[in-house]
């Protein structure tokens, strides 16, 4: 029995090394159970996704599909019960808008006065809005596997991932870039701690600040400035972009 187990382990390690040689990452391989490693459909799907990501790295930035994303939430801690109350996601190719999702999200409890004042969102608006479970399929369809960009984007992704993990034990696998980091790399020595700092620097004025759609419009304007600056610096592909951020 021990000899048989050793043979199985050796075969498994050999198969792992073969997959790694194809350019797959260990976390991708770990996503399938050991008995799934011989499943050709699973292997083709993983390799297809890997090939797509590799191709995207050499795609010109002005032709790269990206999702500009913003959410409004009741607080900062989804694990403590804070929830999404508004979401906006816009798919761009270069600077051309291809698709958009913008909606309030149903909430069955009272909003704090601070959130009402900050966002202009009322409990009546949320009572009539669709529930997140109705919105999520459309949002995921829009996101696909595209690069997500936004300001302090980890906040928005954390809320989406919290919901996905709670409901279907999944998380987003999309690559994501924070505009704050990008701007501070492009304009070395300057700090863009807050979204308003970046808007002020580029003299961007937006309506409905502190709403998901308004802030997404501001982020789209920032993305256009980022692409312009990248072009000036001959940063033209996603690979170039990643080297800039390192």
TrEMBL record:
SUPFAM superfamilies: Ribonuclease H-like. GO terms for biological process: DNA replication proofreading. Residues 65-232 form the Exonuclease domain. Signal peptide: none annotated. It comes from Fictibacillus aquaticus. GO terms for molecular function: 3'-5' exonuclease activity; nucleic acid binding. InterPro entries: Ribonucl_H (IPR013520), RNaseH-like_sf (IPR012337), RNaseH_sf (IPR036397). GO terms for cellular component: cytosol. Pfam families: RNase_T (PF00929). CDD domains: DEDDh. Gene3D superfamilies: Ribonuclease H-like superfamily/Ribonuclease H. It comes from the Bacteria. This is Exonuclease domain-containing protein.
